[in-house]
Amino acid sequence: MLVKENYRNYFINPKIARHRYYEALRARFVEKKPVKEIASMFRMSFHGLESIIRDFKKGLDNGKPMDFFLQPSPGPKKDRKKPLVREHIIRLRKRYYASTDIHRALNLAGIDVSLSLIDHVLREEGLTGLHKRTKQERDRVAQEIHSRKVPGLTIPQQPSIEVAQVADVRKLDMNEGKTFSSRFAGIFLFVPFLIKVGIHHTVAKSHLPGTKMIPAICYLLSLLSLKLLDKERKSHITDWNFDQLLGLFAGLNTLPKTTVATDYSYRLVDNQHNRLLAEWVEAAYPVLCPGGCSTFALDFHAIPHRGENTGLENHYVPRRGKATSSVLTFFARSIDSPMLCYAEADIVSAEQVKMVLKFVEYWETITGLKPQWLYFDSKLTTYTSLDLLNKQDINFITIRRRGTALVDKILSRSEWQTAVIDTPQRRHQRINYLDDKVKLKDYEGTCRQISVTGLGRAAPTLFLTNNQDISGREVVLRYTRRNSVENDLGINVNFFHLDCLSSEVRLNVNLDVVLTVIANGCYRWLANHLKGFEKMEPKYIFRKFVETSGKVSFSGNNIVVRLDRRSHNTIIAQAKFDEKPVYIPWLKEKRLVFDFE
Q1: Over the stretch 443-474, which tens digit does the pLDDT of each residue have?
Q2: Do the Cβ atoms of 208 and 275 come closer than 8 Å?
Q3: Residues 278, 235 share a domain
Q4: Is 34 inside a domain boundary?
Q5: Which listed site, 71, 378, 468, 553, has its alpha carbon 20 to 30 Å from 506?
Q6: Which domain holds residue 119?
């Protein structure tokens, strides 16, 4: 009776959840017992049992009844792999293959086996011990596996890997029907501007080096493409070596490889960087600044070096909060039009104070005119240089360094004037200022000093200017326009990756700085021609317009750039970049035509 009671308890007190569900549902629908009684019988909650009943009904009505019973799936009764691979394992061991060699050879042949199975077969055959192999035996085994020629095994050969072409202008194929595709087809939007400023003439006048395989214009355009397409370093160009459309932009069959692109900057000597910049600014200035440029903001930027024992001078790097090994660069930006007009990286500390006068000389050489206004901070020059600017009738506004005694003397005075400045950052901000004439060391005569409080600093800010006509409020407002050069430097660091350098040679950095100026000009021109996007930063112009996929095909003497469908294509079409014929000198004078999906 005890045994029979155990049998009965198995069904009355089920241990498995699925078994309990089955017995509960059977009691409900077969024996028609109340839900509360069933829940108490099988130690289930009332609401839980109702959910089970609901799911059972729903599944049965939809033709998907609950699965209560498991179907047995008996496993294999004998080894399946061992008889198939035994012969291979024994034969390879006799050829002095180690267990790992056998495992690799079989896997290459598509036979999936484990090392434990190989060892098991070898133990059964008494082949566990492998004598110490000679170097010739090890080399022979390695060569057979590497060449995929293992006796008795059929190993498929590896698919051939496509090798990037070598950049060579003579291998550029522009025959009828040839088509190139890329996700950067929008880079051709810059071509009308490069033609308009005569980039090919600029390169020729700069006497940049080139070869029969890669002419100078192709070198420059291939390096410029890195800046235009948000590429961080020249060493990251490898993923573009298969993009023939980008090679076509530079006039080549493909872009140069990393080593070629990197080494080119070290080949520029004899002031070729500065000649390139001067020729570029002289050509681009009438296009980007049709109304002329007379007011400029000047500033330094330290590009940190990521290394030690470089021999570079220490300069203060704001991002690091300290002075560290870096390359000091100098920039000048037009206030009248958004254009970087000057840049140089071959600067040492002793030359810092001369950069303002050097820019004045540079601008007069290019345009025949001297700047009318210059805005810069106190670190840029000395009082002696300010005196020379004054003698040349060049208006300047700069900041004077504040000593404790000087600040205390100014704050003790009572004849302060009040004004309200109205700038985007300081809307309707009230300031107090003093307007004085001060005597400076090595400065002939007196200089005008505007002491200002209310600009967010505890100590007053001291502005120095040689202009006697404008009001003190106007001095403050004019100097705030200097923020434009700081904003441009921020853009250059952010999008053009100005800080992503590690060279210990300043002249090498100089080429990158010049390319940054050229790329900045390209984006300013493009933004000015896209209605509603004139003030957009380069990264947004790149994302919305330049990074547009498409195809380039050749039809007669036309290069047809067909951009894929995007919402912003209507703005590009509205700009009508090819309204006037655009012939590309470095592409056999073929005409550029834009088309849209």
Answers
A1: 998 999 999 988 878 889 899 999 998 988 89
A2: no
A3: no
A4: yes
A5: 378
A6: 82-146
Terminus-to-terminus CA distance in the chain, angstroms? 87
Residue 503 domain-assigned (yes or no): no
Q: Look up tokens 């003439």; give the residue.
A: 201
Q: What is the mean pLDDT of residues 272-292?
A: 88
Q: In the prediction, which pLDDT does 197 show? A: 93
Comparing CA positions, the residue from 469, 298, 447 lying closest to residue 383 is 447
Token match 């690799």: residue?
104
Residues in the chain: 597
Residue in this structure with the two tokens 């200002």, named with its chain if needed: 452
The predicted pLDDT at position 2 comes to 47
CATH number at residue 300: 3.90.350.10
Nearest partner of 211 among 248, 157, 262, 252, judged by Cα:
252
Domain co-membership, 340 together with 441 = yes
Residue keyed to tokens 């805005």: 375
> Given this model, what pLDDT does residue 449 score?
92
In the chain, the amino acid numbered 486 is: E
* Alpha carbon distances (Å) from 204 to 69, 210, 276, 349: 85, 10, 9, 33
Instruction: Report the candidate in 377, 481, 475 with the shortest Cα–Cα distance to residue 431.
Output: 475
Q: Give me the phi and psi of 327, to 5 degrees please.
A: -105, 125
- Tokens 């993923």 sit at which residue? 239
Tally of CB atoms within 10 A around 124? 13
* Residue 161 lies inside a defined structural domain of this protein: no
The pLDDT score that the predictor gives to residue 1 is 44
**pLDDT band, very low/low/confident/very high, at 3 (cuts 50, 70, 90):** low
Which H or E run contains 115?
helix 115-124
For 33-51, write each residue's pLDDT tens digit: 898 888 888 888 888 888 8
Same-domain check for residues 362 and 424: yes
Give the pLDDT score at 220: 92
Higher pLDDT: 337 or 550? It is 550
Looking at residue 94, what is its pLDDT? 86
Shared domain check, 293 and 403: yes
Residues 220 and 126 both lie in one domain: no
Of 248-262, 483-497, 524-538, the range with the lowest mean pLDDT is 483-497
Range with lowest mean pLDDT among 55-64, 194-203, 470-479: 55-64
Q: What is the DSSP string of 13-39?
A: S--SHHHHHHHHHHHHHTS---HHHHH
Q: Cβ(241)–Cβ(535) under 8 Å?
A: no
Among 536, 465, 480, 488, smallest CA distance to 342 is for 488
Render pLDDT for 266-277 as a digit per residue (tens, 0 to 9).
Answer: 788 778 888 899
Q: Cα-atom radius of gyration of the chain, to the nearest Å?
A: 39
Based on the fold, state whether residues 483 and 534 are members of the same structural domain: no
Q: Is 13's pLDDT higher than 90?
A: no
In whole angstroms, give the CA distance from residue 469 to residue 466. Answer: 9
Q: Are 583 and 589 in contact (CB under 8 A)?
A: yes
Decide: helix, strand or coil at residue 323.
strand
Euclidean distance between CA atoms 397 and 467, whole angstroms: 8
Is residue 69 one of the residues assigned to a domain? no
Number of CB atoms found within 10 A of residue 403's CB: 9
Token pair for residue 16? 């498995």
Q: Please tell me whether residues 55 and 98 are part of one structural domain.
A: no
178 and 142 in a common domain: no
Number of domains composing the chain: 4
